[in-house]
Amino acid sequence: MKKKSLVAGLSAIAIVASLAACSGDGGGGEGGSNAKPTNCTNKIVNADAPVVSVWAWYPNMATVVDNFNNDHDDVQVCWTVAGQGADEYAKLQTAVSAGKGAPDVVMLETDQLVGFEIQEALVDISDLGANDVKKNFAEGSWGDVSQGDAVYAVPIDGGPMAMIYRKDIFEQYNITPPTTWEEYEAAAQTVKDAGGPWFGNLGSNVPAALTALFQQNGAVPFDYDLADPQKISINLDTPEIKEVMDYWAGLTEKGLIGTEDQFTTDYIAGVVGGKYATYVSAAWAPGYLTGAGVGQGDDAGLFAVAPLPQWDADNPVSVNWGGSALAVTTQASDKELAAKVALGLYADEASLTDGWKTQTIFPLNKDVLTSDEFVNNEVEFFGGQTANKDIYIPAADAYEGTTYSPFSVYYYAQLQAQLVKIAAGDVGGSQAATDLQDIIVKYAQEQGFTVE
């Protein structure tokens, strides 16, 4: 069975957001590096150079693109915001299905790569310069953009997870940062019994975060290899996943955590107002929170960060939520030139420094991760805490990578539906895991996959 027949139905999937940390809008672009696209958001510095079209949405992309164009006489970037995350993916899927209209280079979250790889929409850039920069990245982050010896994107940033907490609430209730999830629940009960706020939150719209917590407990939700695209292993009703689902369902049932969707106005108001004692999130969260107005008024200086609580303190596991990469599409007419852009855009020191200093990204390039300025940075949002050195860099270094399915969008939508049922008290954690397994297996089989 051919790859394209396997995914004939995948293009009809409704796209849902897996990460809502940034925002943007804009139009599309035409593939073809020599097409001289004219709908650029940015200024072309060298009008005689060939142009590569790029879709990307990070807030500081204007600076990043200008840095690249000012530094290159041989190629220029024409940048367009085709939407943030899910909106961009929907437009890209339309272009892939139509066989035209895709950019030369596209920003994708790493959990979306396989879904486009299986449609042969992305170029293997391993021999177009990617292998030359492999040494600049940790094994886990490089694995997230690779399939065997093939490399389908260049990492920009990641989301090593940790636990942000309110120092004032912890001090008020004499709580120390929990090192295990058992301690987390005990602390949550202590705060509730004393009449305090919710200890945390699990909104239905963060299925990618919960999936990372599955993996922290040793689960492997999907086993998939593009070299054998017809076969997939789906393991969603395992003891490891049921334990995690039962745990968070239990916190919800006991009233220890909230269930509001994250990234909403109401949720942010709650964070500002001390409605939650903790925020289990990723390294990009400080930038998202400050951008949303957190930590800039009465709540300034009240936040700190600690390592993610563990299931087994003696065997800690680091996991990742979010992060993006730049991929070359198969619609690019000059794939070598497009690869040069993908490899060079958001890879220079000026752009990477701007990214982490504005807290737009947590960079994965070792040149930054090992620099004294980044390592010893006293993060203003955390009251001067050296969060990179103490929390996020060790987590990023220890992250071993993830195997994503070819239908992450559908999987996330179905996990989100189960979380809604859990919040409503309609289903328990273990049953939700079993139901999810049945739904995803049935879907995979309907798409032509053999489920092992």
Descriptive labels:
452 residues; D-Maltodextrin-Binding Protein, domain 2; 2 domains; 5-stranded mixed β-sheet; 3-stranded antiparallel β-sheet; 12% strand; SBP
Can you put this structure into words, describing what you see?
This protein has 452 residues and is α/β, with parallel strands linked by helices. The chain folds into 2 domains: 3-157 and 322-384, D-Maltodextrin-Binding Protein, domain 2; 161-319 and 407-451, 3-Layer(aba) Sandwich (D-Maltodextrin-Binding Protein, domain 2), CATH 3.40.190. The chain is 39% helix and 12% strand. It is built from 19 helices and 15 strands. The strands form 5 sheets. The chain has a 5-stranded mixed sheet with strand order 2-1-3-14-6. α10 (239-253) crosses α19. The protein is globular. The two termini are 16 Å apart. 50% of the residues are buried. It comes from Conyzicola nivalis. This is Sugar ABC transporter substrate-binding protein. Keywords: Signal. Residues 1-20 form the signal peptide. InterPro entries: Bact_solute-bd_prot1 (IPR050490), SBP (IPR006059).
How many domains would you count in the coordinates?
2
Q: Average pLDDT across residues?
A: 92
Q: How many H/I helical runs?
A: 19
Question: Would you give the CATH topology of the largest domain?
Answer: D-Maltodextrin-Binding Protein, domain 2
CATH superfamily of the largest domain: Periplasmic binding protein-like II
Round the Cα radius of gyration to an integer and report it: 22 Å
Task: Characterize the overall form.
Answer: globular
Structural class: alpha/beta
The CATH architecture assignment of the largest domain turns out to be 3-Layer(aba) Sandwich
Tell me the number of strands.
15
Q: What topology, given as strand order, has the largest sheet?
A: 2-1-3-14-6
- Main β sheet profile: 5 strands, mixed
Which bin fits the share of residues in helices? 25-40%
CATH class of the largest domain: Alpha Beta
The N- and C-terminal alpha carbons lie at a distance of 16 Å
Percentage of β-strand residues: 5-15%
Low-pLDDT segments: 11-34
Protein name: Sugar ABC transporter substrate-binding protein
Organism: Conyzicola nivalis
InterPro entries: Bact_solute-bd_prot1, SBP
Signal peptide: 1-20
